[in-house]
């Protein structure tokens, strides 16, 4: 109980000290505290027309009933919010998020995603976008995996801002690649400007935009990966930005790559990826410039996998393709791929999107 209570709620605190029964044991004390705490809460949120005198007549059963009603409404509100996010194709950092959908323009194109929290000592840091969006007379499939590190705030920011920034670019429809590159840089600048609120962490990103079901544009920074299945053969559309591969660029910026501490190369001995959003303290040695690729969707293209490194640490591209190539339902395929990674002892957060084209 706080010492300083203002307004009429102080009445209940004085009543508690004067009238509350003496403590007989620990359980009696807990019930008494819960009773007066709920009574104070109910008075605070009741209509202002309720007089103090009538509020004194509230008995214990009414207090418990109203408290349960409040908890039920809160729980229902959370469930509604979660369903809205799933319907919008937005997966928050929570273990076991899952969803699916399909194109309205091309009924045979479907998508599904599944996420699982890893066994590390931090909360889930992956965020997902998996949705189709109608823009004027065109349809866009927007798919992305954002794998945060040192916190989830940057990944969350990317989930809600990166695609919006891309679509705001004036030449998105005429020069899509240039528009995406500028949007990546602009979004990273926004994150750095808001580093106090978003924290010292960062995030990788792999994004895929499907235009009218015909053209796929992939961009990425970091080690989240995009892999396409073409006639049963895996084709990687993204680039893993490992510090060892970009050592020269990092050193030209005044940084260094070291395997100490740990057993993998890290930028300045800290970060295991050479490109990322955020990470303000390392940004002088890091890049947020994406690698990009374009792919026309012909009949020989079967499906696309977007996944965080929780899958790629334990599976090759071809193993991932072989694991799900006979599964026609995109959502089931994504879930199966995650479960296969878990069976191979992957300990990292895992997020996976599968887009089936036929």
Write the topology of this structure.
Elements: H1 9-19, H2 26-45, H3 52-55, H4 60-87, E1 90-91, E2 98-102, E3 110-116, E4 126-135, E5 138-149, H5 153-168, H6 176-193, H7 195-198, E6 202-211, E7 215-221, E8 225-230, E9 233-236, H8 247-252, E10 257-258, E11 266-267, E12 277-278, E13 291-296, E14 301-307, H9 309-312, H10 317-324, H11 330-343, E15 350-356
Antiparallel strand pairs: 1-4, 2-3, 3-15, 4-5, 5-6, 6-7, 6-12, 7-13, 8-9, 8-14, 10-11, 14-15
Helix pairs in contact: 1-2, 2-4, 5-6
How would you characterize this protein structure?
One of its GO terms (biological process) is regulation of intracellular signal transduction. One of its GO terms (molecular function) is metal ion binding. Pfam families: PP2C. Keywords: Hydrolase, Magnesium, Manganese, Metal-binding, Protein phosphatase. It catalyses: O-phospho-L-threonyl-[protein] + H2O = L-threonyl-[protein] + phosphate; O-phospho-L-seryl-[protein] + H2O = L-seryl-[protein] + phosphate. With 358 residues, the protein is an alpha+beta fold. The protein folds into 2 domains: 72 residues, no CATH class; 235 residues, Phosphatase 2c, domain 1 (4-Layer Sandwich). It is built from 11 helices and 15 strands. The strands form 3 sheets. Strands 1, 4, 5, 6, 7, 12 and 13 form a 7-stranded antiparallel beta sheet that branches. A 6-stranded antiparallel beta sheet has the order 2-3-15-14-8-9. Strands 10-11 form a two-stranded antiparallel sheet. Strand 4 and strand 5 form a beta hairpin. The termini are far apart. The N terminus is likely disordered.
């Amino acid at each position: 109980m706080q010492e300083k209570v203002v307004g009429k709620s102080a009445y209940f605190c004085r009543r508690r000290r004067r009238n509350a029964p003496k403590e007989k044991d620990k359980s009696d004390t807990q019930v008494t505290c819960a009773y007066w705490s709920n009574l104070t809460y109910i008075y605070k949120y009741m209509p202002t027309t309720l007089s103090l005198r009538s509020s004194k007549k509230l008995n214990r059963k009414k207090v418990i009933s109203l408290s349960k009603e409040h908890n039920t409404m809160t729980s229902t509100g959370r469930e509604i919010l979660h369903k809205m996010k799933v319907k919008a194709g937005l997966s928050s950092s929570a273990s076991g998020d899952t969803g699916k959908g399909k194109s309205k323009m091309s009924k045979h194109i479907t998508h599904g995603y599944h996420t699982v929290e890893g066994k590390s000592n931090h909360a889930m840091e992956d965020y997902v976008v998996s949705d189709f969006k109608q823009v004027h007379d065109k349809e866009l499939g927007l798919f992305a995996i954002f794998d945060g590190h040192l916190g989830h705030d940057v990944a969350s920011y990317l989930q809600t801002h990166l695609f919006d920034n891309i679509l705001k670019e004036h030449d998105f429809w005429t020069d899509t690649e240039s528009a995406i590159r500028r949007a990546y840089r602009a979004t990273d600048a926004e994150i750095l400007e808001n580093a106090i609120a978003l924290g010292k962490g960062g995030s990788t990103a792999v994004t895929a935009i499907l235009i009218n079901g015909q053209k796929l544009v992939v961009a990425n920074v970091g080690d989240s990966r995009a892999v396409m299945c073409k006639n049963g053969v895996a084709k990687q559309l993204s680039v893993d930005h490992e510090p060892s591969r970009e050592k020269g660029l990092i050193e030209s910026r005044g940084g260094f790559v070291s395997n100490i501490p740990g057993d993998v190369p890290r930028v300045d001995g800290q970060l295991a990826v050479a490109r990322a959003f955020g990470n303000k303290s390392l940004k002088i040695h890091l890049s947020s410039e994406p690698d990009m690729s374009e792919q026309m969707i012909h009949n020989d293209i079967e499906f696309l996998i977007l996944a965080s490194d929780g899958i790629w640490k334990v599976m090759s591209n071809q193993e991932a393709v072989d694991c799900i190539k006979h599964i026609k339902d995109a959502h089931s395929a994504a879930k199966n791929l995650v479960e296969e990674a878990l069976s191979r002892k992957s300990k990292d957060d895992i997020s996976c999107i599968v887009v089936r084209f036929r």
